Amino acid sequence: MTIEVRNLVKQFGSFKALDGVDLKVDNGELLALLGPSGSGKTTLLRIIAGLDWPDSGEVSFNGEDALAQGARERNVGFVFQHYALFRHMTVFENVAFGLRVQPRASRKDEPTIRARVKELLDLVQLDWLADRYPSQLSGGQRQRIALARALAIEPRILLLDEPFGALDAKVRKELRRWLRSLHQEINVTSIFVTHDQEEALEVANRVVVMDKGRIEQIGSPDDVYESPATAFVHGFIGESIELPVQVEGGVIRLGDRPLNLAVDGLVSGASKLFVRRHDMLVGPPGSGAFEGAVQHVRNFGPVQRAEVALSGGETIEIDAPRDRELRAGDTIGLKPRRYRIFAG
Amino acid sequence: MTMQIADSVSLPSTDARARAHAVAARDSLRTEPPAIRIAIIAMAVIFLSVFVVLPLVLVFAQAFSRGVLAYFSALAEPEALAAIKLTLIVAAISVGLNLVFGLVAAWAIAKFEFSGKTFLITLIDLPFSVSPVISGLVFVLLFGAQGYFGSWLRDHDIQILFAVPGIALATTFVTFPFVARALIPLMQEQGTQEEEAAISLGASGLQTFFRVTLPNIKWGVLYGVLLCNARAMGEFGAVSVVSGHIRGETNTMPLLVEILYNEYQFVAAFAIASLLAMLALITLIAKTVLERHLDEGHDASDH
Amino acid sequence: MGLTLSWLSIIILIPLAGLFLKSLELSPEQFWNILSSRRTLNALRVSFGLAFAAACVNLVMGSIIVWALVRYRFPGRRLFDAIVDVPFALPTAVAGVALTALFAETGWLGAPLAALGIKVAFTPIGIFVAMIFIGIPFVVRTVQPVLQDLDPEIEEAAGSLGASRWQTIIRVILPSLGPALLTGLALAFARAVGEYGSVIFIAGNLPNVSEIAPLLIVIRLSEFRYADATAIAVVMLVVSFVIIFAVNRLQRWAQSRIPAR
Questions:
Q1: Which chain A residues are closer than 8 Å to B24 by Cβ?
Q2: Which residues of chain C are within 8 Å of residue B45 when distances are taken between CB atoms?
């Protein structure tokens, strides 16, 4: 199943949740919608599911107009952030729900339904919980039951809204790996929404970074991390140092001080310089593009994180390898191994 | 507007019907078709109008059916004035008693753990679910001529039944749950941290109560008192059993309504009834206002 | 604490204990004879039977009212929401005379109904009507908060799994409201069984036909037949206890199904 979204606009009152979104999802993909809260990612997911409707724009599944169908005809599996399990039903009945409410003509007989539910509970490795009620399960178990319930209707698309948002860190990590292997097993076109970059980069084949109702970048996890397309993406993904600079005639200035860095591209005027923390190389004073005094040093395993007051007045944090110990009070030179400059 | 036009032009015409269908599908996910919606609203409104609004309107219509003059002269009858006075006295006594003990009961239940707590809560609720006639009956059994304390009371020349004390006791019994019930959830929610903080800062028990506990629950107290008062003034069944219906002496307003109605003095009966109905309406309005206050307090403690 | 308990004992326990003590003075045989007399049995039948029927009407109409108040927006919604409490706040004697005047053969509703050959006031139907009146707030106010707090996502989940609106209501929403609906039913029933003031005016009070149990207690008291009054009261009280107990259990059970977040 391919999904195509064209020029989607959705407004809630004066708030633009989606501001012209275009997106193509290929068959069998596991796609992450990544962005801060209010970026429109959940709205986009709900529109694809048929739980919300756009003000304008188009959504098609395999080239068919999906907006002509309501949620219950779209055959989309949706996993809610807070699971939305039916509390008065056992785990078994929760999973069976989608099969039991099918129109009489296409409804399967009881043994088939039982077999199918059993199969799904096996798939999510929770067959031993069939007779429990949702309130008797842990968060991670509820999440997996919600997934099994969504898969019961053999959905053409699987949509997950912050699937791990309500879980604690350890369970979250386990479930991430599990979701990826499950996706390989069932191979249904899947989209999940998250605000956690680590989650998006670790689980998805492709990541869509959104901000303020617009798509900032679409690419593989490596793409969005290694070559961010916009200032927002660079700032949002990975730990970045962000410095306000002036670009004039091929010279970059931080405050009054010209930086010994090359400018590629067409940027000029007030701009932003982005460097990953671990891409700042430490050298003797005068050797790099920046100079500064070390304020604080803390050690994190293989790296030391130093707070450096640049001579331009800015204070930045860098991650340096521990082969050369930094001390508070040291004056050092800094040279970015890689950097990017964005207008604005 | 321009967007809508552009939208419909760009749409292939075969999709138009499918989209119209989708509009219906979108609305149906969390609501019902308009016809059913209208039918449900109509049923609710008609039912409430017939069973609740109409009787209420009728009370005032009947009270004023012979004009304003007849209405006020009915209220100025000595019998009516005596009933109003007695009702106010009884309400004051029972509200006062239940205020004090409701506060204490709620405080004990909300702030302490002890065995038999569930039983205690059930006990507090009991007068709500006991027939008011039975509530009256128990006092007849205790203080009546054949009752457990009947002969002792007669020997000491103390009149409880068929007198103000009996009416006040029965009213206190049936209105007992209101204050406690209004306060228990409120005090449970607030927990004991603030009190513990006050005590750790050197406040005495009484200081803590008046400066920390009471300000936190003042709207709840008012709420409980309001409902308690409304029920106290309007109580009929229990009071009817213990009052003895002595005209001008042990008739409260609801009892007078009954007597006048049975004597076919409809204007007078409905005039008194209209006062009680007014009390009910004022109580409801005040209750709505108070609930808003309580909700605000609730929201504030959430954030 | 001691104060609370002693107060509770004085105001609630002692009177009730007195009632049971009094009933113990009766031999089982006497007790049985009182209860099995035709008039007592009929009064209990009228009270319990009509109270149950009225509670059922309240369950249905209360659900409809709650649905309209919570799910729809219509002019006067807040006013009608407030009006639901009127039967609770209006003194029962006032309700009694008002309903009687309304449904009497010359009344605003009684006259048109009489033209159709339906007599309401001074018949068992009148009792039924009064019991419906006083029971409305109990169902509405127990179910309303539960419907309000119902997670909208479970309806969306049901829809996205292919359930029709009707299936969602029957299989998801109603079962979620189940404990609240049953509680409301029980409370409305308990209130209607014991109701006196709003019923006696409209009832007609014909022994064996339209005489309610609380009225029979009052009549026996006025005849100084305390034993008879006590026996009937004990039966009603036991039923009240059972209902409260059941409601408390129901509430606890419903609580246990709410997932801890």
A1: 70
A2: 68, 74, 76, 80
CA A26-A18-B27 angle, to 5 degrees, is 90
Q: Flag if A71 and C156 touch (Cβ within 8 Å).
A: yes
CA angle A148, A150, A155 (to 5 degrees): 120
The C-alpha atoms of residue A305 and residue A298 are separated, in whole angstroms, by 5
Q: Is the ipTM of this complex over 0.85?
A: yes
Which residue bears the tokens 């009190």? B195
B236: closest CA of chain C, how far (Å): 6
For residue C199, pLDDT over 90 is answered with yes
**Segments making up each domain of chain C, as ranges:** 47-210+242-257
Q: Which residue of C has its CA nearest to B61?
A: C98
Chain C CB contacts of B292 below 8 Å: none
**Amino acid identity at A99:** L
Q: How far is CA C165 from CA A77, A154, C83, in A?
A: 18, 21, 30
Distance CA A168, CA A147 (A): 18
Q: Which CATH class is domain C47-210+242-257?
A: mainly alpha
Radius of gyration over alpha carbons of chain C, in Å?
22
Cβ within 8 Å, pair A68-B7: no
Neighbour tally for B115: CB within 10 Å: 7
CB contact under 8 A, B26 and A70: yes
Element (H, E) at A252: strand A251-254
pLDDT on residue B22: 56
List the single residue in A88, A100, A149 with the smallest CB-CB distance to C257. Answer: A88
> What are the distances in angstroms from CA C186 to CA C59, C78, C191?
10, 26, 9
CA distance B106 to B225: 14
Query: Which tens digits make up the pLDDT trace of A159-171?
Result: 999 888 778 888 8
The span from the CA of C139 to the CA of B216, in Å, is 30
CA atoms within 13 Å, Cβ hemisphere of A332: 23
Whole-number Å distance between alpha carbons of B259 and B256: 5
- C12–B127: do the CB atoms touch at under 8 Å? yes
Query: What is the rounded distance in angstroms from the CA atom of residue B284 to the CA atom of residue C87?
Result: 11
Tell me the torsion sign for CA atoms C227, C231, C232, C233.
positive
Q: Which two tokens stand for residue A51?
A: 């739980």
Q: If you average pLDDT over residues A197-209, what whole number do you get?
A: 90
Question: Residue B248 and residue B85: Cα distance in Å, rounded?
Answer: 10
Number of Cβ pairs closer than 8 Å across A and C?
82
Query: CA-to-CA distance for C126 and C97, rounded, in angstroms?
Result: 12
Alpha carbons B282 and C91: distance in angstroms, whole number: 13
The single-letter DSSP state of residue A13 is T
Whether the CB-CB separation of C231 and C39 falls below 8 Å is answered with: no
Span A37-72, pLDDT tens digits: 888 889 999 999 988 888 888 898 988 888 888 888
A149 reaches C (C-beta below 8 A): yes
